[in-house]
Amino acid sequence: MPTYDYICESCGYEFERFQSITANPIRKCSQCGKRELKRLIGAGAGVIFKGSGFYQTDYRSESYKNGAKNEKSSTAKEKTTAKSKDAKSSGKTKPGTVN
Q1: pLDDT in tens, 28-78
Q2: Could you read off the pLDDT of 2-33 as tens digits, one per residue?
Q3: pTM here?
Q4: Cβ of 3: how many Cβ atoms within 10 Å?
Q5: How large is the greatest C-alpha to C-alpha distance in the chain, in angstroms?
Q6: Strands (DSSP E) found in the chain
């Protein structure tokens, strides 16, 4: 439910009230009793994001997600292949080492 600001044009009393959007505005001031309350137009509340964060990639298309997944798995395979080649070549003596 939105919060509405009110001001009495007679006595100047200001207050806020939670009301349904479909509710009629309040007309009678609770301080002076006169029917001169006016509902003020406010800027409204901004959108509040709670949580660890929202990123552009949170709402990517399925095709983009699949492409990224394939790219990630191919990169992992390349790294595994490179490590196995390094392990095979490590049988050679390195300069400055004694066998």
Answers
A1: 999 999 999 999 876 666 666 676 766 666 667 788 888 888 888 887 767
A2: 888 999 999 999 999 888 888 899 999 999 99
A3: 0.43
A4: 11
A5: 102
A6: 3-8, 14-18, 37-40
The one-letter amino acid at 9: E
Compute the chain's Rg from CA coordinates: 34
Cα–Cα dist 59/69, whole Å: 15
How far is the C-alpha of 28 from the C-alpha of 8, rounded, in Å?
Answer: 8
Pairing mode, strands 37-40 and 14-18: unpaired
DSSP letter (8 states) at residue 57: G
Backbone angles phi, psi at 38, to 5 degrees: -130, 130
Nearest partner of 7 among 27, 21, 96, 62, judged by Cα: 27
The residue behind tokens 């990169």 is 75
